[in-house]
Design brief:
By secondary structure, this protein is α/β, with parallel strands linked by helices. It has helices at about 40-50, 75-80, 100-110, 120-125, 145-155, 165-170, 175-190, 200-205; strands spanning about 1-10, 25-30, 30-35, 60-65, 65, 85, 160-165, 190-195, 210-215, 215-220.
């Protein structure tokens, strides 16, 4: 099944300052698309497009065959629950502790408010070495700890689509083997994945098709 399907889509290019030439793109269950680009800004904007954070200049966005209505953010909330976005753009709520950030995400995903992290969340916190940082607010975390907390938050959504910006930068090389194991588990569950990376090993391991973004155009090969 196609999870995300863009038809006749266009958004503003940061490289050219002009709209993208209308393009089609789709990602299916268990599919992995890597991005090759001459503009990291356009790559990030495209990832934000997939995460429903950028409104189209034209075209249709369908999630599991249902056309999205961008006229109000409320129309997009159910879709956002199903998309994980691991990126420099993603942020924690500053006036909440790490634990509260994670609990709020769990509650948002399950509609059940709890005072304790479930076992999956606890395991992820341990894997990314933030289990002793849960009482801290984001401002007290190191850069690595902050990015790891964002990663855990997005993974506990149990997303149907996972979008990743430069995992070698965001997650760090020291955590890439851990993260690669998680990616394999997600693929076993037919999660669709789109990522941009400069790390050849990660690309060669997971990429099944390539999205080429260049000079305000996008094509899939």
């Amino acid at each position: 099944m196609k999870l995300i399907e863009l038809s006749g889509y266009s958004f503003q290019s940061r490289k050219t300052g002009k709209p993208f030439k209308p393009f089609d793109f789709s990602i299916s269950q268990g599919d992995v698309a890597s991005i090759s680009t001459d503009s990291s800004g356009d790559a990030l904007t495209f990832l934000k497009v997939l995460a429903t954070l950028v409104h189209p200049l034209q075209g249709e966005y369908r999630f599991k065959q249902v056309r999205l209505n961008f006229s109000s953010y409320k129309n997009l909330l159910e879709t956002k629950k199903k998309i994980g976005f691991i990126s420099s753009y993603a942020a924690l709520i500053n006036n909440r502790s790490v634990r509260e950030n994670l609990l709020l995400m769990s509650a948002y995903h399950t509609n059940v408010l709890s005072t304790e992290l479930d076992q999956t969340a606890q395991n992820l916190c341990a894997l990314f070495s933030i289990e002793n940082k849960l009482a801290l607010r984001p401002a007290a975390l190191t850069g690595t700890e902050y990015r790891n907390a964002v990663t855990v938050r997005e993974l506990i959504k149990a997303p149907e689509v996972l979008i990743i910006e430069y995992p070698e930068r965001h997650i760090g090389f020291s955590n890439l083997e851990i993260f690669s194991r998680i990616v394999r588990e997600l693929l076993d569950r037919d999660v669709g994945i789109v990522f941009v990376s400069e790390y050849k090993k990660f690309i060669e391991t997971f990429s099944r098709k390539k999205v080429v973004i260049s000079r305000g155009t996008l094509r899939t090969i």
